[in-house]
C-alpha cells in the first residue's frame, strides 16, 4: 500500500484557505506517476486550534468536510485517513476524525476521547464517549487515534486486540513535547507490533509551535520515514504490511499477555 502523508502549515480560523490548500496538495500528490493508495491528513485541519472561534467555525455533522473528501477520493481513486475537524453535534463540538474510501464512502468516524488540557480543549470541546474501533481499507485492519490519545496505551492496545495492523495518528503536537511525540509513537509500534503512520502540522499559533516530524514506524520500532521539524512535506512510502504476523510470531506478546490478570 503506497502512502502519501501530509505535513502542512494550517491557516488558523480560515477553513476555506485550508480546503484550498488540501485540494491543491491532493491534486499535486496524485499527479505523481507512482500514485499513493491512501492519503493521511492531520488533526483539526479545517480550523486549526482557533478554539474560541469554533462556535461559528465548526461545521454541522461533517456537512462540509465529508462531501469535500468524498469528491477528492472519487476524483483520484484514493482512500483518505481524513484527519480530524471541529464538528458541531446536538450537544456540542467534537474533534471528529473521518475515513473515506476511494469509492467516496464514509468508512469510519471517531470522536477524540482524550481532550488535551495543555491546549485548552476541554473548555471548548466535548469528549467522545465511544472507544476507537478498527476499520478496513483494501481488506487491511487499521485504526485511527487523535494526538493526545497517543498518551493512553489502552486505546491503541484495544485496537491491536481487534486486529489493527496499522495505527494512524492525526495530530497537532507541539514542539515543546517533541521527545514524547517520537518516543510514544515508537512505544505504541513496538508494544502492539503494528505499523504507526502519523501526520502532524508545522507553524506557530497563539504562541504554540508545532513539531512536524510526521512519521512512519515499522512493527519493530524502526523509523522508516520522518519529515523535518519546520517544513511542509509529503512523506510517500510503500508499506508492504507483511511484517506484522512475522513479528507477532517471533516475539509472541499477544500470546504471553495475562488477560486473566489485567
Ligand atoms: N493536539 C493534541 O492533542 C496535543 C497533545 C499534546 O500536546 C501532548 O500530548 O503533549
TrEMBL record:
Keywords: Hydrolase. GO terms for molecular function: hydrolase activity. It comes from Alkalicoccobacillus porphyridii. This is Carbon-nitrogen family hydrolase. Belongs to the carbon-nitrogen hydrolase superfamily. NIT1/NIT2 family. Gene3D superfamilies: Carbon-nitrogen hydrolase. Residues 1-241 form the CN hydrolase domain. InterPro entries: C-N_Hydrolase, C-N_Hydrolase_sf, UPF0012_CS. SUPFAM superfamilies: Carbon-nitrogen hydrolase.
